[in-house]
Amino acid sequence: MQTKADSHWVSYPRFLARALWSATDGGVTFYAWMTGLTAIALVGAHAWATQVAQGMALTGMSDHVSWGLYIANFTFVVGLAAGGVMMVIPAYLYRDHDMHDVVIVGELLAIAALIMALLFVVVDLGRPDRFWHLIPLIGRFHWPISMLTWDVVVLNGYLLINLHICGYLVYMRYLGRTPDPRWYVPFVMISIAWAISVHTVTAFLYGGLGGRPFWNTALLAPRFLASAFVTGPAFLVLLLQIVRRVTTFRVPESPIRTLIAVMRVTVLVNLFMVFAEVFTAFYTGGAHATAARYLYFGMHGATGLVPWIWSAVALNLFGAVVLLVPALTRRTALLDVALVGIFVGVWIEKGMGLIIPGFIPSTLHEIVEYVPSLIEWRVTAGIWALGLMVLTIALKVALPWMQTAPAHSHDG
Amino acid sequence: MSESQDFVSRRTMLKTAGATLGAAAFARALAPVAEVVEELGAEEFLQKHYREMTPAELEVVLRRIEADALENYGAEVHVRDVRPREGVQFGYALNLSVCIGCRRCADACHRENNHDRRTNQSYIRVLEMQQGSFDMEHGDATYDHAVPQPGKYYMPVQCQQCDNPPCVDVCPVEATWKERDGIVVVDYDWCIGCRYCEAACPYHARRFNWEAPEIPAEEVNPDQAYLSNRIRPQGVMEKCTFCLHRTREGRLPACLEACPTGARVFGNLLDPSSEIRWVLANKRVFVLKEELGTRPRFFYFFDE
Ligand code: SF4
Ligand code: SF4
Questions:
Q1: B11 CB within 8 Å of a chain A CB
Q2: Would the CB atoms of A290 and B137 count as touching at under 8 Å?
Q3: Per-residue pLDDT at A407 exceeds 60
Q4: From the CB of residue B51, how many other CB atoms can be counted at a distance below 10 Å?
C-alpha cells in the first residue's frame, strides 16, 4: 500500500542522514563535551594498540590473577545494561504513562552499556585478531557447554533487541506516524526477560567455576541482579536530570520518583545479600572464607583491596540512608551525591571487589596481588568515554523526535 | 534563503572536517595494531583449527612454524605432528615420601618446553608443605632455601590431565580439548586468549603468554611438536602436555627423567604390567581436590 513517496527505500536513508546531521549539531558545550570525550577515547585506543603490539604483560594481570580491571568493568556495565530495563517494567507492565515518555532513555542507556561491555571483552583478549573464531558457524562456537558462548549470545541479542526498539520508535516519529505496537511491544516484553537473562548468564560465568569458592555460590546471580537494579536507576535518575537541564526535552517528575522508589527496595535487597554472604563466610570461617578475609581485612600483609571494599561499603550505606529517608530524597543536591555514591560503590563491589578476590588466594593458595597498570586505566577510561559518546549521540538523535510526537499515542 | 543554505553548507564542511580529523586521529592512535597485522599474514590469520586441517594443510603450517622459529629466534627447529597411539591411556603418579623439593623437574620442564627465560616459567609448581597438614594454605611455592627442610614435605603440582576438565568445558572456541590418550592440549594457533580456562582450572596448571617468550637461539629445544613444546605465540594459553612429543613415541616426560629421587612414575594405564598400575594397586593413592569432580590422572602416594 506504500506509495512511491513514502517508500522506506527513500525515507530510511533520508532518516539516517537527518540523524547524522542532528547527532553532530550542537552548541559550544556539546562540541566541548564531545571533543573531551574523543580525546580520552583516543588515549584509550592508543593504550590498547600498544597492549596488542607488546603483549598483555603491560597490564597488571598475571597467571595468578588472570582477569582484572577490564573484566571487572565488563561485569559492571552488563549490570548497567540490565538495569536500564527498570524503566521499561513500570512503563509497559504497569502502564505508567509518564514513564512511557522517557523509557527510551533507559533503552539507549542499555545500548551504550552493551557496546562498552563488548569492548571490554575485546580489550581483554590476548589475540583480538582471532575474534572470528568466536563467530557461530565460521569459527568453533562451543555452545551450549561454555558459559562464555551463552554470554556472547545474550549480549548481542540484547543489543539487537534494543537497537530494534529504539530504531523503530524513532524512525516512526521521523515519519510522523504512530508506531504500530505489534512491531515493538512484543520486543519490549522480550527485552524485560532478556535483561534478566543477560545478567544471570554473566553471573554464571563466574558461579560455575568449582575451583573458585569465592564465586561458586548460588547467591551470585541474585546479587548481580539486585545490584544491577540499583545502578541502572541511579544512572538514569542522574541522566534524566541532565537531560532536563541541557535539552528542551520534557522530563516529567514522576518517572524520577518511580525510579527512586524502585531503588529504595533494591538498595536494601542488595545490602542484605552482601550481608548474608559475609555472614556465611565469616561465621563458618575455614578455607572457603579466605578470599573474603583477604577482601575485607587483608591477609599476610597483602591488603590491596581493603580500602576499595570499605569505601564501597561506606558509599552504599550512605546512599541507602539518603534513599530511605524521604526528607533527604527531596533535597536534589544531596540525592545526586547519594546516587553518584551508590553508582561508584557498586562499581567497586561488582568490579574489583568481585573479580579480583576470586583469584586471591590462587587455587594453590598463593597470595599474589593485582594492581591495574596505567595502560589498563587508560583503556578503561577510553571505553567509558566512547560509551558516553554513544549515549550522547543516541540521546541527541532520539529525544527531539520523541518529543514531537503527540503524547501517549503509543499505548502498549 | 541562500544565506541559510550557506550556513548549512558551511556547517556541513566544518562537520566533515571534524569527522575526518577525528577518524585520522583514531587511525594514528591505533597505528601499533597495524604493524602487528602486517606481520601476521593472511595465511596465519585464516588458519583452520588443528582438528579441521587435512594432512597437507597441516604440513604447510608445520613448515611455516619452523620458518618463523628461524626468523624470530634464529633457531633451526623440527616441528612434528604426533598423534595419540591406540590402546594407550597415560597416567602419572608421584611419591610424596621421596620428593625432596629440589625442583629439578620444574627446571627440566622449563628447558624442554621452550619456556620464556626472563620469567623462568615452568608448568610445575612445587609446594613446600607443613608436615602433618594437608592444607595448601600453609604451603609455599616460592621458597628459596636449602631443601629438604626438617618438618616439611614437598608437593609438585602440574596439569592433572583431568578426565572431567573444567578448562575444556569453559573454552568458548574449543581451542583446548582432551585427546584420546587422556592428554589435555591447546591449539596455540586457535586460542583467542580470553584466559577463561586459566580461571577455571583448580590446579593453577595453565600459563598465559603475556608477551612473546625470549629464548636465546642456542637454548631452544629443536625437538618440537605442534601441540606441545613449540615456541608459543604471544597472547595465547599453554599448559603441560605430559611431554606428548616424547611420551607418544615411547620416551618418558622430561620432568621424570630429571627427578634425582625417582619420585615420579609415568605410564600406560591400560598396560597391566606397567609400573603405574603397580603403584595404583599397591600404594595408598589419592588425587588433589577430589571433591571438585575433575577426576585427575595425576596421582599422589606415600610410601607409608
Ligand atoms: S589440571 Fe587444570 S589444565 Fe589440567 S586438565 Fe585439569 S583443569 Fe585442565
Ligand atoms: S584462553 Fe584460549 S584455551 Fe583458554 S578458554 Fe580462552 S580461548 Fe580457550
A1: yes
A2: yes
A3: no
A4: 10
- Give how far A193 is from chain B: nearest CA, Å: 24
Q: Residue B237's beta-bridge partner residues?
A: B208
Regarding the beta carbon of B175 and ligand 2, being less than 6 Å apart is answered yes
- Residue among B127, B173, B210 minimizing CB distance to A142: B173
Question: In A, residues 36-75, which contact B (CB 8 Å cutoff)?
Answer: 38, 41-43, 45-46, 48-50, 52-57, 59, 61-64, 66-67
**A6 pLDDT exceeds 70?**
no
Query: Which residue is closest to A204 within chain B, CA to CA?
Result: B170
Interface of A with B in 325-364 (CB under 8 A): 358-359, 361-364
Angstrom distance (rounded) from CA A187 to CA B29: 39
Q: Hey, are the CB atoms on B172 and A142 less than 8 Å from each other?
A: yes
**A404 confidence band (pLDDT: 50, 70, 90):** low
CB contact under 8 A, A129 and B18: no
Relative to the alpha carbon of B176, which ligand is closest?
A: 2
- Across chain B, mean pLDDT equals 94
Instruction: Report chain B residues whose CB lies below 8 A from the CB of A386.
Output: none
Rounded CA-CA distance B239/B109 in Å is 11
Helices (H), A298-373: 306-324, 326-329, 332-350, 352-355
The confidence score (pLDDT) of residue A3 equals 53
What digits encode the pLDDT tens for the residues B30-48?
Answer: 999 888 888 888 888 999 9
> Is the Cβ pair A363, B202 closer than 8 Å?
yes
**Number of neighbouring beta carbons within 10 Å of residue A406:** 7
pTM of the model: 0.95
Per residue in A259-272, pLDDT tens?
Answer: 999 999 999 999 99
pLDDT at B3: 61
Encode pLDDT of B67-109 as tens digits: 999 999 999 999 999 999 999 999 999 999 999 999 999 999 9
- Dihedral sign, CA of A201, A203, A205, A209? negative
Cα separation, A33 vs A22, in Å, equals 16
Query: How far A134 CA sits from the closest chain B CA (Å)?
Result: 6
pLDDT at A125: 97
- pLDDT beyond 90 at A87: no
Q: Which residues in chain A (93-112) have CB-CB distances under 8 A to chain B?
A: none
Does A282 lie at the interface with B, CB-CB under 8 angstroms?
Answer: no
CA–CA separation, A315 and A320 (whole Å): 9
**Is 50 exceeded by the pLDDT of residue A408?**
no
pLDDT-derived band of residue A288, with 50, 70 and 90 as boundaries?
confident
Helices H / strands E in chain A, number of each = 15, 0
The mean-pLDDT minimum among A296-305, B169-178, B246-255 falls in A296-305
Taking only residues 204 to 233 of chain A, the set having a beta carbon closer than 8 angstroms to any beta carbon of chain B reads: 205, 208-212
Question: What residues are in contact with ligand 1 under a 6 Å CB criterion?
Answer: B 159-162, 165-167, 184, 201, 203, 205-206, 239, 294
Cell of B124: 610445575
Burial A4-43 (b: 16+ CB within 10 A, else e): eeeeeeebeeebeeebeebbbeeeeeeeebbeebbebbbb
pLDDT band for A93, please (50, 70, 90 cuts): confident
**Average pLDDT of the segment spanning B276-289:** 96
Quick one: CA dihedral A177, A178, A183, A187, positive or negative? positive
CA–CA dist A91, A110 (Å, integer):
16
Residue A4, SS3 per DSSP? coil
